[in-house]
Amino acid sequence: MKRTLIATGLVAAFSIYSVQAAEIDDRGARMLKDNLSHFLPDSARSSGFLTVRPAGDRYEVTYDIARLIETIDKKNFTVSGLTPFTLFAAPLNNGQWKLNSDSNMNFSVQGRAPDGKPTSLTYSVTDAVFSGIFDPAISYLRSGEATSGPIRMVSKSGTEEIEASFAGMNYSLGATNSATAGATDFHGTGSFSRFYERIATPQASPVQIRAESLDFDVGVEGVVAQNIQKLVSFMLELVKDERPSEAEIAELKELIRSAMPFFTSLSEKIAFNKFTVASQVGDIGVDKLNYTLTMTEPSEATRIGVGLGVEKISTPSGLVPEVYARLVPDMAEMEVGIAALNFTRFVDTLMEMDLSKPGPLPEAESERLGKAILDDGQLTIDFPKIIARSSLYDVEASGEISGYPDQKDRYNLETSILARDIDRLIQYFQGAAKVDPQFNQVSFAIMMAKGMAKTEPDGRLRWDIRFEDGKALSVNGQVIQ
């Protein structure tokens, strides 16, 4: 949203250029305007898109994006409906700034895609309200609150159309001192209500996606904002140079090293509640659909993980044959990650390269970077939790697989599988074999596996499986091949 982008831009400018004002006056307004537009091209600065003026005990900052767009070569598109956006910034006695905005927005973009197809985009948001406290000591918002009324977007490209909307939004941000000395932890939560999306293409019937709400929770810990502030400030200055000098490149590399590791952990969780996909075949829904993203500190052993989870899956009557319907899990979770990524070596290798040349890195250098981030060229994928449960089974697995991307047959697998109610599942397959004889093979395979299992104190069966170098397979210590 324009409101959010402009507020973020204002925060970024405060992060880079220290703005202090004991009094609200014209001189302070000019200083603030210069600080906010310092990193922009001359054509943008002279367009008049930004004005700052005293307004009682605060500054009124107005962005006229339509004027800014006029400075861009826009032969293939036109923009209409943009109105000036105003944000108020009030200096506080403790050196922090109070930010406020209240706006509506409704604009459209029309043009042609590279293939000549007519394209258009309309976007609107009503009752968008933002307030926050910016703290120069952490170079970011110490706290923030944002809400809005209905949000709607329609995108068209030729005969294809995507429509998306929310009934409203709320968002809260907080910052606290980190356990890491001199660092800050940031945490944000929010929700979009009554999500709707419609996708229409000539090749298929329209698909509609709905959710009662979309909740999100994001956090980043251990951010040393001052080091990142110095890096961003220098980079904004550097982009003005068509060809940076060797001294500037050396300074950039030093600032990157100083800013590492950027953070100690990062996490994101998105949950769709009462999620439904409606199409020509009927409605497919889940009570809850979760997505997670995690990342540990960029270091010699970094892990990036993703997760998916579903609860109470429903399908149209007859879509899944009855004999298979009971095999659909009532709930399922999966966590998968890429582990042992050497970001420290990646950055060290990058810093050894010549970054003064324009354009992308040569292929050999890109390949060198790819090898630097992997430990001896080995890729490790872990799955700390995979769970599936229904009225017939309860299965959980964890483990990891490691190997060499350029040597497909060279890999190691270690996994542990725990399961309960195996007898009930065997009985089901034996009965289902009357409908589909192939289930006889499935029930026989499960009985074979049961015979190799260990029994845990809680009654679950356990299989510890190892597959070494793509050749030797063992289950609970018993060599199979």
UniProtKB/TrEMBL annotation:
<keyword id="KW-0732">Signal</keyword>
<feature type="signal peptide">
    <location>
        <begin position="1"/>
        <end position="21"/>
    </location>
</feature>
<protein>
    <recommendedName>
        <fullName>DUF945 domain-containing protein</fullName>
    </recommendedName>
</protein>
